[in-house]
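From the methods appendix. Each design record in this collection lists the tokenized structure first, followed by the designed amino acid sequence. Records were kept in a plain field format so they could be parsed without special tools. The example shown here is representative of the layout used throughout.

RECORD:
FOLD TOKENS (136 positions):
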């Protein structure tokens, strides 16, 4: 069972490229969660954490380019939220490598909650700005 299933009604921002990237980001989270719950090899989970971090950086970069290009007033706040997420994943990776497996359940929930709220609130807000400026 997926930790965080995609739901168009809740998560779609009605921009195909962004929606596809959000689906991909959620897919990384679900795959990581499955690996944790199935007790996959330590090296596999470390690689998945790196993949999640790398993909998040890629996706956030696209969002931030759009926000800057169209003078989104909350750009800096949005960017800070992105940075927080990346730092959190890096901290998770460090804790996991140090053998602190008890952090994974709590951390998986926090990652899911962050992605959920970020898409529903922060991302939909900047997309409204883009739409109001005739971008999409």
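DESIGN:
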């Amino acid at each position: 069972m997926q930790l965080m299933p995609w739901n168009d009604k809740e998560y779609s921002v009605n921009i195909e490229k962004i929606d596809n990237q959000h689906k991909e980001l959620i897919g990384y989270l679900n795959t990581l969660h499955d690996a944790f719950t199935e007790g996959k090899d330590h090296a596999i989970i470390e690689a998945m954490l790196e993949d999640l971090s790398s993909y998040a950086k890629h996706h956030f970069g696209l969002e931030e380019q759009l926000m800057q290009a169209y003078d989104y007033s909350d750009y800096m706040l949005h960017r800070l939220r992105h940075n927080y997420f990346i730092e959190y994943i890096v901290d998770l990776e460090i804790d996991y490598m140090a053998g602190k497996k008890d952090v994974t359940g709590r951390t998986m929930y926090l990652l899911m909650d962050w992605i959920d709220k970020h898409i529903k609130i922060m991302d939909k807000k900047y997309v409204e700005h883009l739409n109001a400026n005739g971008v999409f």
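APPENDIX NOTE: The domain at 18-33+42-131 is CATH 1.20.120.50 (Four Helix Bundle (Hemerythrin (Met), subunit A)).
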